[in-house]
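call fold(seq) -> tokens
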Amino acid sequence: MADAPKPAGKSGGFGRGRRGRRGGRGGEKAPEEWIPITKLGRLVKDNRIRKIEEIYLHSLPIKESQIIDHFYPKDKPLQDEVMKIMPVQKQSSAGQRTRFKAFIVVGDSDGHIGLGVKCSKEVATAIRSGLILAKLSLIPVRRGYWGTKLGAPHTVPCKVTGKCGSVRVRLIPAPKGTGLVGSPVSKKLLGLAGVNDCFTCSIGQTKTMGNFVKAVFAALEKTYGYLTPDLWAETRLIKDPYQEHSEFLSNSAKPIHA
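ret:
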């Protein structure tokens, strides 16, 4: 018996056939509105805290990366740099498990810098999570002068040292016009921190970039840890934001349902 002719427009066989075309992606999604979950986040979103220095003044912990994004609008965003992505392995019963470790540095080139280190199965996830951790660890960097105090601060205020593992990094003040004297990694971190002139000295296994980046970051973190004579003036104590805006926080808190 001869096979019946196949209907036009239909393919034979038992295959699944050609799938229909999926709809378009619909363009980029609009950014979701930030709903703060911490007291500090509620104060920042309501513009009760207008400068990030108020947070550092009272040593308030930052637990939401959107708080940092609030102080840096889209026209003046934080600069981020992927310093290194390295594979790390762990021996398990099923064999070796490989993940990727990312070192991310953020800064505004005006006295603030942050470092984030994250390990993940995928490179994109490690970079994205490392960027969030870098924003959460944003610290102020104190800058000073070499010699006469003319113009804007341009170098580190004093000699500071940072260490991590076998790496020791020393930052030394330099006169104006010197520039950044050091390796490309230290130049990148100092530039993101807003330091224009600086000598650097390092010892140890500086080829290990992870420890080297951490050592430079630790040295920059110590710039506000040394109490120079110009900071000996009596500090006038003021209320911290939680105490000053306690009424707003109590009214804006969500009720807990039993």
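Residues 123-136 form the longest helix (14 residues).
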